[in-house]
Structures are given as structure tokens and as C-alpha cells.
């Protein structure tokens, strides 16, 4: 059964800056900020305070995430948009049409216009947050949930316990 759905995210601040995925000292001295770059290095993102212990990391099996990742699913973490900064480069936005999203939510995805790396997405479903692709930060964050499991293929196996497997949207993650 095929259908359409999805939610993803974004948002930004542009300044200038540094590079590669690594921990950098935090301005407030508590949690470390983390930075990550696209494959070609043109874009660098920073998450102020890092992901934190309660990071909402998840795998999304929706059809747009499959196509836009060129793979089976997308690995994403939901972070407060105020904590996501673009410190180098200018990401290219892709405003996904509502018709490609069964929820009818507007979704905008951002990627590197040079190398095509998916960066983060934003959705009306969670206007205060951004869905950041965890690969930019080394995929060190294990997924805590899987969403749109109904779009997964019969030969795929869950990576999370049954209670963390959701047939559809991101509701439990963005609440
Ligand atoms: Zn790039
Ligand atoms: Zn998705």
C-alpha cells in the first residue's frame, strides 16, 4: 500500500564559521555545541547545546524521505529551531508541495545545492522545531523511534522496540 505523508523541517541563521563535525566549547559552559557539514563542506550547521540526553531521534520511512535520501529511510533528530544555526554556506530550500504530504502540512527541506546532502526540514506540524539529519553529526545518536512504519517494506526490520514503532506521523516526537 502506497500513500503519501510526511513531515520534515527547517530553519536558519547565517553567519560565518568553522568546519567539521566535532564538539566545540559551549558559550554557556554547560552542554557542548556540535557542528556538522555536508559532504562537500560548503554548508556547516551548528546545534547549540548539542542534541542533549532527551534528544528526539527517529527514523522516518515516509515516501518523501525515501526518495530524498536515495535510500530506505531518513535518520533525523528533532531540535528546537532556535538552537539550529547555519554557520557556513547558504542551504537551498525545497518547498515540498502539500499534495505530496497526506497530512496536508507544508514541509520545507533544506539541502546543499552543491553536493545534494539533505540537511534539515521544517514542518507546520512542529513550527518551533527543525528535523536535522543525524548523518551530518556522525550518526552517533541511536534512533529512539521509527515513524511512518506503514511505508516500510515487508523485508525491513525495526531497529527500535515495538512500543517505539509508529504507523504514521511524528506526533509523539514533536509534542
Ligand atoms: Zn555540500
Ligand atoms: Zn519522512
TrEMBL record:
PROSITE patterns the record matches: CENP_V_GFA
Highest rank taxon of the organism: Eukaryota
InterPro entries according to UniProt: CENP-V/GFA (IPR006913), Mss4-like_sf (IPR011057)
Gene3D superfamilies per record: glutathione-dependent formaldehyde- activating enzyme (gfa)
Key words of the record: Lyase, Metal-binding, Zinc
Ranges for domain CENP-V/GFA: 34-156
UniProt record similarity statement: Belongs to the Gfa family.
Protein's name in the database: Mss4-like protein
Amino acid at each position: 500500500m502506497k500513500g503519501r505523508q510526511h513531515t520534515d523541517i527547517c530553519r536558519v541563521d547565517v553567519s560565518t564559521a568553522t568546519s567539521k563535525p566535532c564538539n566545540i566549547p559551549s558559550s554557556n559552559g554547560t552542554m557542548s555545541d556540535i557542528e556538522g557539514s555536508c559532504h562537500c563542506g560548503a554548508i556547516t550547521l551548528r546545534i547549540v547545546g548539542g542534541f542533549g540526553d532527551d534528544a528526539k531521534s527517529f527514523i522516518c520511512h515516509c515516501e518523501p524521505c525515501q526518495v530524498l535520501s536515495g535510500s530506505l529511510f531518513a535518520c533525523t533528530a528533532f531540535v528546537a529551531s532556535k538552537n539550529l544555526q547555519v554557520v557556513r554556506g547558504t542551504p537551498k530550500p525545497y518547498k515540498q508541495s502539500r499534495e505530496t504530504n497526506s497530512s496536508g502540512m507544508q514541509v520545507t527541506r533544506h539541502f546543499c545545492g552543491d553536493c545534494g546532502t539533505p540537511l534539515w526540514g521544517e514542518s507546520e506540524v512542529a513550527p518551533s522545531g527543525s528535523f536535522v539529519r543525524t548523518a551530518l553529526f556522525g550518526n552517533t545518536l541511536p534512533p529512539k523511534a521509527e515513524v511512518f512504519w506503514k511505508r516500510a517494506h515487508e523485508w525491513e526490520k525495526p531497529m527500535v522496540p515495538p512500543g517505539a514503532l509508529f504507523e504514521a506521523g511524528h506526533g509523539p516526537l514533536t509534542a
